[in-house]
Write a structure and sequence with these properties.
163 residues; alpha+beta; six-stranded mixed beta sheet; three-stranded antiparallel beta sheet; 3 helices
Length: 163
């Protein structure tokens, strides 16, 4: 049986070591824009605010109250370090939601979380946030360049005793 040459399988003349180095650089370069994009989407000013009013201002203004946001938090949280929150958006009321924010009014820095909502998906977010003391929590949705919110009060107990 005759073996035929399949041609030059290494047209660039790279050694294995050079190929690994070039491939690594290409992966780093490909990942860079995503990290830059993620950093650009993070509202740094809003995360550094210390009052509810300043947080709303950094996000673009005071949101309008909307029944299109279903915001679930416990009425009483036994451990303020891990308070569960869940936000669902009724897309028949609010469409084209691009971001969901969680704000804890009495925290030293009220903005607790930001979620990017990919296009053509059901807007939903669930997480746990630290709540310094009894007070209002806000779910804010950004839709079509406007801000909408729903508010809930959560009581934080000390040691689970009803404080």
């Amino acid at each position: 049986m005759e073996l035929r040459s399949m041609g030059n399988l290494n047209p660039l003349g790279l050694t294995r070591r050079s190929f690994v180095a070039v491939t690594s650089v290409l992966f780093v370069v490909a990942a860079l824009p995503q990290k830059i994009w993620a950093a650009a989407l993070r509202p740094e000013t809003a995360f550094q605010t210390t009052t509810l009013e300043a947080t709303f201002e950094a996000l673009g203004g005071v949101p309008k109250v909307s029944d299109g946001i279903v915001f679930s938090t416990p009425d009483i949280a036994e451990n303020g370090a891990v308070v569960p929150v869940r936000i669902e958006i009724d897309t028949s009321v609010l469409s084209d939601v691009s971001k969901i924010y969680v704000i804890v009014e009495k925290n030293p820095n009220p903005l607790a979380a930001v979620f990017q909502v990919p296009p053509n998906t059901q807007p939903y977010a669930e997480t746990r946030v630290k709540v310094a003391q009894t007070g209002n929590l806000y779910a804010v949705a950004e839709a079509n360049g406007q801000l909408y919110m729903m508010q809930r009060e959560t009581k934080v107990t000390l040691g689970g005793c009803g404080g």
